[in-house]
TrEMBL record:
Gene Ontology CC annotations of this record: cytosol
Organism expressing this protein natively: Candidatus Avoscillospira avistercoris
PROSITE patterns: PROKAR_LIPOPROTEIN (PS51257)
MF terms (GO), sorted A to Z: N-acetylneuraminate lyase activity
Keywords on record: Lyase
Family the UniProt entry places it in: Belongs to the DapA family.
Active site (record annotation): Y139, K167
Listed SMART domains: DHDPS
Pfam family, one: DHDPS
GO BP, sorted A to Z: N-acetylneuraminate catabolic process
Binding site for pyruvate: I206
Descriptive protein name: Dihydrodipicolinate synthase family protein
Keyword Lyase carried by entry: yes
Length: 302
């Protein structure tokens, strides 16, 4: 029986790191990896939505993962999202990830064309076959991928012994319960409902806003494990308020979070890649309010 303890905890979705010209910054990637280690998170999820994967080339995504692995060195669980919108590139990234020694690979279904379930299963199994010694995690995010993981598709995928579970970013918490009932491990995806996801049986969380306020999410999980639900709920509600504040900016959420990290003494990850919207002048107060809210919450709860 597999030991899943390395997946139990708070796993930030790794942000894309760019230099002033908008190219991948190896130094920025390494600095952000060190920052996550210092913050005490369980691991990192590299190359997903927060990593702006759909706007990066295969070569760029390889470069990012190489820099993360050079710093992680066993101090972080590393899950590499390797999906591209074609099988060949996805297999190339999967094989590369395995060669670097990642703990698991993950993949969303192909987007744009709505494929039948048997085609999605073949796509995922073909990717998994390119990394035959590595755990595989299904990434369910129907609101962006346009395809939802079903019980029948999960059952088909569980015939593959490398498939260990689901990163579930659908909004219904009920999905976590359904997927858990099949024997899969499930990571809570929507940051706004980490506490609910844990209560429903998620093994941990993988989240886009974990990177900007990791200590708050770590504390939510600690309090949950201690049975202190009211205190955990209070922090969860505060995290939600901070998320709503960040989402009110004209610039993209990731641009806001990267700017906030810098103001809190963290590494400079640059801006975001077009067509994602960079920060506007009018966003400066929102970044400042975000920093103030996170700083106050960490001081109060952590």
């Amino acid at each position: 029986m597999k030991d899943f303890t390395k997946y139990q905890g708070i796993i930030p979705a790794f942000y894309a790191c760019y230099d002033a010209e908008g190219n991948i910054s190896p130094e920025g990637v390494r600095a952000l990896t060190r920052y996550h280690i210092e913050q005490g998170v369980k691991g990192v999820y590299v190359g997903g939505s927060s990593g702006e994967c759909i706007y990066q080339s295969v070569a760029e995504r390889k470069l990012v993962l190489e820099q993360v692995m050079a710093e992680a060195k066993g101090k972080l669980t590393v899950i590499a999202h390797v999906a591209c919108n074609n099988t060949a590139d996805s297999r190339e990234l999967a094989a590369h990830a395995e060669s670097l020694g990642v703990d698991a690979i993950a993949a969303i279904p192909p987007i744009y064309f709505h494929l039948p379930e048997h085609a999605i299963a073949k796509y995922w199994n073909d990717i998994s076959d390119a990394a035959p010694n590595t755990d595989f995690i299904i990434y369910n995010i129907p609101q962006l991928a346009g395809v939802a993981l079903t019980g029948s598709l999960l059952a088909e995928m569980q015939k593959n012994p490398r498939v260990i579970g689901v990163k579930n970013s659908s909004m219904p918490v009920q999905d976590i319960q359904m997927f858990r009932d099949t024997g899969a491990i499930v990571f809570n995806g929507p940051d706004e409902q980490l506490l609910a996801g844990l209560a429903t049986g998620a093994i941990g969380g993988i989240g886009g806003t974990y990177g900007v306020m990791p200590k708050l999410y770590i504390r939510i999980r600690e309090l949950f494990l201690e049975g202190k639900m009211e205190q955990a709920r209070e922090i969860q509600n505060e995290c939600c308020r901070i998320i709503y504040k960040m989402c009110s900016a004209k610039g993209n959420l990731y641009a806001v979070m990267k700017a906030a990290i810098v103001k809190m003494g963290g590494p400079d990850c640059g801006s975001v890649r077009l067509p994602l919207a960079p920060l506007a002048e009018s966003d400066a107060p929102i970044v400042d309010e975000t920093v103030a809210a996170i700083t106050a919450a960490v001081a109060k709860y952590c």
